């Protein structure tokens, strides 16, 4: 059974009004606040750093889900925890010693997640599944909000769901990129537990209602 969690991506929020945007999320049905950290090396974009994360955390009443799109995650894990991370996800291709990194995330007290890019097979995750709490499937290429959902993600979710059910059914399956009201229902039916939505939530006329609608998808 899908857990139907929604994590609005703060990347699409109005940064001139951080407090109001976080308060909107606090009063919504959002389950997590998704925080996209980009280093301009692993992905061709730079988002924001820990002072901004601290500002979000200061007002947040929802748990924070940190998505690290960076080459060198290990030196920044403690900063994520201090900035409120309850989930930290790292890209499997970016981590030279992935097992070490996810083990360290758990030791620091957060849920550890591994992220897989659109071109990579879910079979690449087989050996790491016993050591993670969450798998994030990218449904766009990482680096930017507002991109088009990649349709082959549905099959990938179904494949991953089978693997997760065998390895550890507690593992959360999270999907990130181009999520909207047209694909959310099918993603949940395919086995996704948690959907990240940036533009679709924050650029809508009524973000709170949009979050509620996605949860019911
Ligand atoms: O990690 C990323 C992009 O790299 C995402 O979290 C986006 O921020 C989602 O934005 P939308 O595709 O929903 O606009
Ligand atoms: Co993200």
From TrEMBL:
Secretion signal, residue range per the UniProt entry: none
CDD domains referenced in this protein's UniProt entry, alphabetically: RPE (cd00429)
Note describing how the cofactor binds: Binds 1 divalent metal cation per subunit.
Transmembrane segments: none
EC id: 5.1.3.1
Keywords: Carbohydrate metabolism, Cobalt, Isomerase, Manganese, Metal-binding, Zinc
Catalytic residues (positions): 36, 176
Pathway per the UniProt entry: Carbohydrate degradation
Cofactor requirements of the protein: Fe(2+); a divalent metal cation; Mn(2+); Zn(2+)
One Pfam family matching this protein: Ribul_P_3_epim
First-tier enzyme category under EC: isomerase
Reactions that this protein is recorded to catalyse: D-ribulose 5-phosphate = D-xylulose 5-phosphate
Sites where the protein binds substrate: 9, 67, 143-146, 176-178, 198-199
GO biological process: pentose catabolic process; pentose-phosphate shunt
InterPro entries according to UniProt: Aldolase_TIM (IPR013785), Ribul_P_3_epim (IPR026019), Ribul_P_3_epim-like (IPR000056), RibuloseP-bd_barrel (IPR011060)
Residues bound to a divalent metal cation: 34, 36, 67, 176
Single GO cellular component term: cytoplasm
Family named by the database record: Belongs to the ribulose-phosphate 3-epimerase family.
Function: Catalyzes the reversible epimerization of D-ribulose 5-phosphate to D-xylulose 5-phosphate.
Protein name listed in UniProt: Ribulose-phosphate 3-epimerase
Taxonomic lineage from the root: Bacteria, Pseudomonadati, Bacteroidota, Cytophagia, Cytophagales
Gene: rpe
């Amino acid at each position: 059974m899908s857990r139907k969690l929604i994590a609005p991506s703060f990347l699409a929020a109005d940064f001139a009004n951080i407090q109001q945007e976080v308060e909107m999320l606090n009063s919504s049905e959002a389950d997590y606040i998704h925080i996209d950290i980009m280093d301009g090396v692993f992905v061709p974009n730079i988002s924001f750093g820990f002072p901004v994360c601290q500002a979000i955390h200061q007002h947040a009443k929802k748990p924070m889900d940190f998505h690290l799109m960076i080459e060198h995650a290990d030196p920044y894990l403690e900063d994520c925890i201090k900035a409120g991370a309850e989930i930290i996800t790292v890209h499997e291709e970016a981590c030279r010693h992935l097992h070490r990194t996810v083990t360290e995330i758990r030791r620091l007290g957060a849920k550890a997640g591994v992220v897989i890019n659109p071109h990579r097979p879910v079979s690449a995750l087989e050996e790491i599944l016993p050591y993670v709490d969450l798998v994030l499937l990218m449904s766009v290429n990482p680096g930017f909000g507002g991109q088009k959902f990649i349709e082959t993600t549905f099959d990938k979710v179904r494949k991953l769901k089978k693997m997760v059910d065998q390895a550890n059914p507690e593992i959360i399956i999270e999907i990130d990129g181009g999520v909207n009201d047209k694909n959310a229902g099918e993603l949940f039916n395919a086995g996704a537990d948690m959907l990240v939505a940036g533009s679709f939530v924050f650029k809508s006329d009524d973000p709170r209602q949009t979050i509620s609608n996605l949860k019911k998808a």
